[in-house]
Amino acid sequence: MATNRSAGSLRGYTTPLQKAAAAVGxxxxxxxxxxxxxxxTTNYDTMTFASHHSNALLLGIFAVSILHNLVHLAFxxxxxxxxxxxGGARAYLIGGGVIYLVLWLYGLLVDRHSPAxxxxxxxxxxxLHLALAVGMIGLGVLLSRNVTAHRTARGTPPNVT
Length: 161
Hints:
By secondary structure, the chain is mainly α. The chain has one domain (15-152). 57% of the residues lie in helices and 4% in strands. The chain has helices spanning 16-34, 66-82, 86-109, 123-154; strands spanning 41-42, 57-58, 62-63. The longest helix is centred in the C-terminal third of the chain and has 32 residues, at 123-154. The chain is globular and about 45 Å long. The chain crosses the membrane at residues 20-37, 57-82, 89-107, 127-144.
């Protein structure tokens, strides 16, 4: 008997919120891996561990370093793990969105050529961080509202683990 595997790796994630968190986590994991692939990351030979001196650019656009790539990998793994529960998925999307909002502000305030720019970030990163913040917080809030309202209307507790 054939098994239905059409949902692929998202099969274990039951709610749209969990699926969204898992998808975001998978994208971060992919971005972290791509950051270590020469050609996809231009100026790969100039990549440093963590500083504004790294001239490596993911897709020729986004400034990356070894630390930056490792953070993407960790953020991706965290998303996949936290997406296993409703509460974890919500915390990942909203909390991660807040982290990216802080990173956006950091990118706006820190001089790109300053030693304080240890991540490193450039203008493309800044706008991507803002889009990620809005998108993640939006997904976390909107996709958890419907489940919370539905469960409250049925008389079951809104805190789904």
